Amino acid sequence: MDTAQILADLRAERSLIDRAIVALEAFNGTKPLRKSTAAGDVARTRQKVHRTMSAAARKKIAAAQKARWAAKKKSAKPVTAAKDVAAKKVAAKTVKRVISAEGRKRIAEAQRKRWAKKKNAKKTVAKKATAAPVAIAAA
């Protein structure tokens, strides 16, 4: 048998199998999968079947959502009250706090002490690191 004849036989078998699959899907009530466009395109034919929603189901969901929004709007406070509260908060925040000169000096001095302490700690660590090898060498 030549390869052309073998290919023709295989294609005939494939078309028979495809028709059998379509018939079984129709009998089973499922939607047929998308036909492949290229030969041997088996991976693309097995796609997820998308389900559709009935008009009655869409109406039922829409009515439920509208009821939820109506309940939420009903329980919400009026907008004018919220604006009044926001205006009061802004008015309360407009008072600016100022630190005195003595307070600034105390803070600056404390910060200088912290920096000096940190700088001295680095110097002592460096001295210990350089002094330790000398002590070992002397021993």
List keywords for this structure.
mainly alpha, 75% helix, 139 residues
Could you characterize what this model shows?
- The chain has 139 residues and is mainly α.
- The chain has 3 domains: 1-46, no CATH class; 52-97; 100-139.
- The protein has helices at residues 3-28, 42-45, 55-75, 79-93, 101-138.
- The radius of gyration is 41 Å and the shape is flat.
- The termini are far apart.
Number of strands: 0
As a percent range, the share of strand residues is under 5%
Low-pLDDT runs of 5+ residues are: none
Number of helices: 5
Radius of gyration using CA atoms only: 41 Å
Structural class: mainly alpha
Provide the number of structural domains: 3
Order of helices and strands: HHHHH
Helical residue percent?
A: over 70%
From the spread of the alpha carbons, the general shape counts as: flat
Mean pLDDT: 81
| Major sheet summary line | none
For the record, give the distance between the C-alpha atoms at the N and C termini, rounded to a whole number.
96 Å
Could you give a quick summary of the protein structure above?
The chain is an all-alpha fold.
SSE layout and pairings?
Layout: H1 3-28, H2 42-45, H3 55-75, H4 79-93, H5 101-138
